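Quick illustration, no need to memorize.
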Amino acid sequence: MQYKKFGRTGWQVSDVGYGMWGMGSWSGSDDEESMAALQRAVDLGCNFFDTAYVYGNGRSENLLGQLVRANPDKRLYTATKIPPKNMQYPNLPEFTLDECYPPDHIEEFLHKSLENAGLERFDLLQIHTWNDDWTESDGWSDMLDSLKKQGLIGACGISINRWEPWNGVKAVRSGKIDSVQVIYNIFDQNPEDQLFPACQEMDVAVIARVPFDEGTLTGTLTKETTFPADDWRSGYFAPENLIPSVERSDALRPLIPEGSSMAELALRFILSHPAVSTIIPGMRKLKNVEANMSASDAGPLDADLLDDLHKHRWVRKPAPWSD
C-alpha cells in the first residue's frame, strides 16, 4: 500500500481508501460480511474510511466505529458527511444555505453521527451537498472551525454534486476547507480542468469517488443487467444510461494491460493524477477488497496509456436518473 499527504492536514493516508455507502443502504448488504471486508482492508494497509449519516441512517457509521475499536493499535482516519437539513439530494441551485446547512444543524448532526459510531471525534467532517454561492457566508465555516477547536473534528471539507466539479472551486480557493470529494474516473475527467489545479495551489486534499462509474468501469455490467427495485442503481442505470455506459466500457477493453483488469485500470488511472490524495471505491466482498488494494502497489499508468485513456472522456450533464 502506498500513502499520500492529505492536503494541508499532513495526514498520510492510503491512496486507496474505502467508500462505505454500499454497506449502509444498498440491497444485499450484510453487516458480518461488511465487517470482514473492512478488516481485510485494514490488514492490507488501508487507513482511510469514508461514510455519511444517510448511508443507512447511521448503519454505516456504526460499522466504522466498530472497525476503529477493533483496531486500537492502528491509526485509521474516519470521515463522515452531514446531510442537508431538507434531506434533498442532489443540491439544486434554488436551495438556500439556511435550508440546507444552518450552523445548529451541522452541530446537531455531527453529534448524531458521533453517537452512531460510538466515537469521540471524526477526523474529517464533510458537507454532503454543495453550492459554491454559499462560500462567502460565514455561518457554516465558523461552525466547522468551532467544532475543530472543540476537538470534535480534525478537518472539514465538501462533497460536490455529480458532474459539477466547477461548483467547488470558490470554496477551495476561499481557504475555508481542507478537502474536496468529487467524482473522478476515466469517463469523468472534468475535475482536471479547474478543480484539481485549484486544489494543488491551495493544498486541499482530493478524495476521488465513484472510481468505477457506479460499476460500469468494473467491466461486469451488460446491457441486460438489472438491479432490485429497492437498489439505488435500478434508477441510475435506466436504459438511457446503461446502454451507452456499457458500450463505452467495452471500448476500453483493448487498452487493458495484459494480466490486469478493467477495475485495476480504472483505479490506476486515478492514482496517476498528482492532485488525488485517495480513492474511495465501494467494496463489500473480500475478493474486491484484495483486488482494489493491490492497485496501489501497481502504481500509476505510463504516459502513453494515459494519453489513450484521456480520449475516452465523457462529458455528461445531470439528468433525472442521475440523482
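Residues 3-214+256-300 form a domain with the TIM Barrel fold (CATH 3.20.20.100).
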